[in-house]
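Bug report (template v2)

What were you trying to do?
Predict the complex of my protein with S-adenosylmethionine.

What happened?
Run completed; filing so the output is reviewed.

Input:
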Amino acid sequence: MSEWHGDAQRLTQKQQVTLAHNLKRKMKGGLEVTDEHFDLLFSPDVRQYSHFHWTPMHVALKASEILKDLKVERLLDVGSGCGKFCAITAILGEIQVTGVKQREFLNSAAKKIRNFFQLSNLNFVHGSAFDMSWKEFDCIYFFNPFCEQKTPERHIRNDVPLSEPLYHTFVQLTHSRLREQKKGSRVMTFHGMGGV
Ligand SMILES: C[S@@+](CC[C@H](N)C(=O)[O-])C[C@H]1O[C@@H](n2cnc3c(N)ncnc32)[C@H](O)[C@@H]1O
C-alpha cells in the first residue's frame, strides 16, 4: 500500500484500483484502515472536505456492526457526498446501500469508488434526497446533512441552493418523510439530522 504524503497527493487510476483492492481485503479481514489511506481514493478537491463532511472510518465501522445486529437490509444515506460511508457499509455488510447526493463532482467521485471496489450492492442517485421515495428502505442514515445550509464556513461549494430557510424546510420535510416510513424502520444518525 502506498505511503500517505499529505492532502495534495493524487494517485493514478491504476494506483487507486490497487489501493481499493487492498483496503477491501483489509476491511473484510478486520484489519485497521486509516481515514488517510481510505481518502486517497478521492482526488484532493474531494478529500479536502473529509475532516468535516465525510463519516470517519471508526464511525462507519461501528455503524456496520449495528446495521448487522439490527439485520438492516436496505439503507439510504441521505446526502451521501463522495460515498465514503456508503462504500464502507456496502463492503462490510450483506446489505443494499443507496446514497443520494446533489453535486455533480461528488456524484462522479462516488461512482468511481463504487467501481474501484466493484460493489454490486451499492447504488448512487444524483439529485435531491426529497426527489426520491424513502419507503423501500428499512434504515435511513444521516450525517447532519443540512448543516451546510446554515453554516457558511462549512459550505462545500456554492453550486447548490444554500440558505437558512432551506435548512428548516429540509428538516421539516425529513420529519414528514420519517413519519411515512414503515413501522419498525430505523434511523441512524451521526451528529444528528438537524432536528429533534
Ligand atoms: C455531512 S455530509 C455527509 C456525507 C456522507 N453521508 C458521509 O457520511 O460521508 C452531508 C452531505 O449531504 C448533502 N446534502 C444536503 N442536503 C441534501 C439534499 N437535500 N439532497 C441530497 N444531498 C444533500 C450535502 O451536500 C453533503 O454532501
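What did the reviewer find?
Confidence is low (pLDDT under 50) at residues 1-5. The chain has nine helices and five strands.
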